[in-house]
């Protein structure tokens, strides 16, 4: 989606009163440039993205970019770089995002032509020096707050993890989860397994796809209702036998869907950094992708997300889904943020949304999360749509969440002050995030189960002839995963 040049919009598409001022360009030195806007009471962030001689297609991250979070001493919000040489005639293509009074505003499809004059740069001095032998030095390793794999240090801006899936193998970076999810998560109506039909690498991309269990040999309707499932190599994080085996009886059936979930738990984890995942999300009723960061050691506990969980990208993948309150909640709404509880309104309190005209499963997007000791930022295609700067411990105590008493009182973002690993998967159904009384599709078909019903999974399975027809593109396709130090 492309906004007309010169128009400014709220994130939800409403016209707003605030107008971003014209961006001023200066050339204080012989290299680089300075871009700025004047300060205004209520202004919270000035995000600047620029390229040289190359227009933006959408909201990609620029080659010269920064999220400026405070004005300078002269009362301007300023991006400053001395990196590029800029001969006259260079075109600076740029877009701007401003957060003002907790709302977001854009300035898009802009360009500036560099015309330097002698007066536009600092006076030049001429000196005579004796030539010295040419020496080559390694680039400096600037300090960073980022650590990885048990506290190892690194350099600011360094790429510390990457997988472009060109090697054609999961090992050694990824391992499969093998388990039946319980209500400690969303009690998804799946078993996560390592079957080759549910997760594979093809053409340099990771593909995770859910399938009906009846497509597996030996499974039929009778076995789902009366049979038994034992998962060999079960990876239950708490060695809970209910995550490793299930016997069907009465209202309990075997999980009707098989899917996959992979993680870097035994290869890579980190604390603080920036992660980018280029992916095409699934489409189909009652499916949701899981692009998450999970706590490596569950230091603060396992139950009720005591150690937290970060969502890089998440949608309810229905083509059309409306909640009981009439709000659109389908695959046109991207969500990201953090979970510090699994129950009630607290589960979604720290999730942020981005609405789009197109379903997020229609094409590839770059989903990002920036994690610092003071804030968590959420991006899509380089555009920031959410920021979390709360004291989670204080909020949790106000809502009587007992896990808050365990969190580090000296870390405002605790429990997000420990190492986390990358997790990618596809879930189906569950009893947490598809609200009751919601309706799907142009015919407004009601959701076939109730989240509080002990037969929720059974009613979902009974309706398979309806929802399975919508699974035309149920796969999550991942092009790359990259993690950078701050």
TrEMBL record:
GO biological process, one term: carbohydrate metabolic process
PROSITE patterns: CBM39 (PS51969), GH16_2 (PS51762), WW_DOMAIN_2 (PS50020)
A GO term, aspect molecular function: carbohydrate binding
CBM39 domain segment(s): 18-119
SUPFAM superfamilies given in the database record: Concanavalin A-like lectins/glucanases
Domain GH16: 125-486
Pfam short name (any one): Glyco_hydro_16
Residues spanning the signal sequence: 1-17
Name of the protein in its database record: GH16 domain-containing protein
Annotated ranges, domain WW: 443-476
Keywords, in A-Z order: Glycoprotein, Immunity, Innate immunity, Signal
GO cellular component: extracellular region
InterPro entries, A to Z: Beta-glucanase-like, BGBP_N, BGBP_N_sf, ConA-like_dom_sf, GH16_GRP_C, Glycosyl_Hydrlase_16, WW_dom
Keyword hit for Signal: yes
Domain of life of the native organism: Eukaryota
Protein family according to the UniProt entry: Belongs to the insect beta-1,3-glucan binding protein family.
């Amino acid at each position: 989606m492309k906004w007309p040049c010169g128009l400014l919009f709220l994130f939800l598409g409403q016209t707003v009163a605030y107008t971003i001022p014209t961006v001023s360009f200066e050339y204080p030195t012989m290299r680089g440039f300075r871009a700025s806007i004047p300060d205004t009471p209520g202004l919270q962030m000035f995000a600047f993205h620029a390229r040289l001689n190359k227009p933006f297609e959408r909201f990609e991250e620029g080659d010269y970019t920064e999220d400026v979070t405070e004005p300078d001493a002269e009362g301007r919000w300023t991006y400053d770089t001395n990196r590029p040489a800029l001969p006259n005639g260079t075109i600076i293509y740029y877009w701007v995002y401003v957060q003002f009074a907790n709302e977001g505003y854009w300035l898009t499809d802009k360009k500036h032509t560099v015309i330097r004059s002698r007066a536009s740069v600092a006076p030049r001095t001429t000196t005579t020096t004796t030539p010295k032998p040419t020496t080559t030095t390694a680039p400096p390793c600037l300090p960073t707050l980022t650590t990885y794999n048990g506290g190892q240090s690194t350099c600011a801006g360094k790429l510390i993890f990457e997988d472009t899936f060109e090697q054609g193998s999961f090992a050694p970076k990824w391992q499969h989860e093998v388990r039946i999810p319980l209500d400690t998560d969303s009690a998804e109506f799946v078993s996560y397994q390592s079957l080759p039909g549910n997760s594979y690498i093809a053409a340099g991309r990771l593909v995770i796809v859910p399938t009906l269990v009846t497509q597996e040999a030996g499974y039929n309707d009778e076995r789902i209702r009366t049979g038994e499932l034992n998962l060999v190599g079960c990876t239950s994080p708490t060695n809970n036998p209910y995550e490793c085996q299930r016997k069907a009886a009465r209202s309990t059936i075997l999980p009707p869907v098989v899917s996959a979930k992979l993680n870097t738990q035994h290869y890579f984890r980190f604390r603080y950094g920036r992660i980018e995942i280029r992916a095409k999300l699934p489409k189909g009723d009652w499916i949701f992708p899981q692009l998450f960061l999970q706590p490596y050691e569950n230091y603060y506990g396992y139950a009720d997300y005591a150690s937290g969980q970060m969502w890089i990208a998440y949608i309810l993948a229905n083509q059309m889904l409306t909640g009981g309150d009439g709000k659109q909640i389908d695959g046109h709404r991207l969500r990201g943020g953090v979970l510090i509880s699994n129950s009630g309104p607290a589960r979604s309190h720290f999730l942020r949304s981005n609405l789009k005209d197109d379903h997020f499963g229609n094409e590839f997007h770059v989903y990002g999360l920036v994690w610092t000791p003071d804030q968590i930022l959420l991006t899509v295609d380089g555009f920031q749509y959410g920021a979390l700067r709360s004291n989670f411990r204080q909020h949790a105590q106000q809502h009587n969440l007992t896990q808050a008493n365990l969190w580090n009182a000296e870390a405002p973002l605790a429990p997000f002050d420990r190492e986390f690993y990358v997790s990618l998967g596809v879930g189906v159904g569950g009893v947490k995030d598809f609200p009751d009384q919601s309706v799907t599709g142009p015919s407004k078909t009601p959701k076939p189960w109730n989240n509080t019903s002990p037969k929720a999974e059974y009613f979902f399975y009974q309706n398979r002839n309806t929802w399975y027809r919508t699974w035309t593109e149920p796969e999550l396709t991942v092009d790359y995963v990259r993690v950078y130090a701050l």
